[in-house]
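_Full entry_
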Amino acid sequence: MTAIREDLRAAFDAAVAAAHPSRILSQQLPPRPKGEAFVFAVGKAAVPMAEAVEADWGTESLNGLVVAPHGAEVDSSLRALSLATASHPYPDAPGAASATRLRTAVAAVPANAPVLFLLSGGASSLLLAVEGGPTPDVLQAGTRALLNGGADIHALNTVRRALSPLLGGSLAQICRGQMTTLAISDVVGDDPVSIGSGPTVPSPTGAMDALNLLRHYGALNPALEAWLQEQAQTQEQQRDFEADYRIIASGPLSLKAAEQHLCALGHDATITADAQVGLADDNALMLAERVRRRPAGRPQVWLMGGEVDVRVNGTGRGGRNVQFAARLAQALDGVPGWTFLGADTDGQDGNAPNAGAFCDSTSWARAREAGLDPDAMLAANDAHSLFEALGDALITGPTGTNVNDFRALALV
């Protein structure tokens, strides 16, 4: 790995560390309640968040349940809190059982008992399927159609809030205890309604909004339509309630940590965008144009974040950060003096084990020299395979947190 790639990877690690529960949660926890306390956690960072609470509060008289993606049990060191797993990004039957188990546990909390709810990105998928609701296969089909149609996170969450009996404030509604939510934000703008589809905050949208979005993206099937029509009356009448809710980590805070780390290494690093949205391809082309127009000057590193989308039309695995990187490499093919890293801070970009990928001014030429057709692979949304073949994939494994996209462009 070249020196500049090492520095960009170190900046990514600094961004992840700045949002890791083991580092930040103890500073945000309320005092340990006297007597019995209840802790629930859901999301990609659920296990490390819950472990941090156990470390700070101790395990005596601590009860609750953690719902995390399948595989989280391998590295879990939870002692008092139980662990259940579910599928991400598409729901499955074991996940529906886990979500149902969470619903039962939350509903059983005694009146006015202290409840700490730990929320992180991925909770929307983990709680989408519940026994008695739409079946996982129906939800999978609808979710895939939305994602492949280019629906952004707000549209996706609007649909999820209406489909699940645990999202859109529904989890808080069934809890008789005094609930406090601590959230790691994975959405642009840090809107609590969108973080994990807002299981503990009132929803501003309902079943009819979801129906309209599903129709718009061509994702509405008869089973989902029947369920939403049935839910329209009850969900539209959801009562308002007060939510004790705090965001403890976010993408902009992590980008700031990366900026500080790069500056300490001697780079001229600047956050140029912390709320990128829209299609990955469009954002990459705009960045490429900015590079072409940049006047000659001292070396710089531009840092970017947010959550872009990818419209999967081909047979590839998608992945918004590798799509961004591949489109940038194509647009800047032959333009010297740049290196890019795009990665998801949760360690998984799309349906692949990669967090993201590096690319640089030589990527397209190296691909052709290796006998690949990078243009065709990009058109097929198969950028993961492209960068794996080039040895440029970034593989980190699950990071224990999730504050969305990290992108860094180094210019000489």
